[in-house]
Amino acid sequence: MIPEKRLLQLVEQALDLQRVNCLFHNSLNEETSLNADHRCGRDNIPSKTVQILHDHRYEVWYLKFSKNGKYLASSSSDHSAIIWEVNSDGRVLLKHRLTGHQRPVSSVSWSPCDDQILTCGVEEVIRRWDVSSGECLHVYEKRLVGTVSCSWSPDGK
Length: 157
Fold this sequence. Notes:
- The protein has one helix at 6-20, and strands spanning 60-65, 71-76, 81-86, 92-98, 105-110, 116-121, 126-130, 136-140.
- It is mainly beta.
- The strands form two sheets. The chain has a four-stranded antiparallel β-sheet with strand order 1-2-3-4, with no helix packed on it. A four-stranded antiparallel β-sheet has the order 5-6-7-8, with no helix packed on it.
């Protein structure tokens, strides 16, 4: 006996396999079809510099867009992180410079609803910030533990 909706599952698996095997696939919106093999070309990958951001004093170590795409966060060896606002035309403007770390900031992590962000100092503290105000909401300290990255749990806690 064939389980109910088995054909639909097989078709979805075939389409997923085409996307997974595509070297240049980077879009959730592009449709795949069983009528032809799916292939994205190299020309689908952005290859032009649109804007250079000069606001960090030293090298940038990490970049991450918010889930809603409205913000970009950067962390740097200059002991700071920056929240950038992405305009409707794609241009990026400085929203908040997040300072207070005593060591380089190795990574950032957006909260599930993008209203807060964590910054992680190298072998230092983790700071939680309010995105709209740029205010530091909490400092998490763990003595003698070297941190290099941070993340939110899926429930935002």
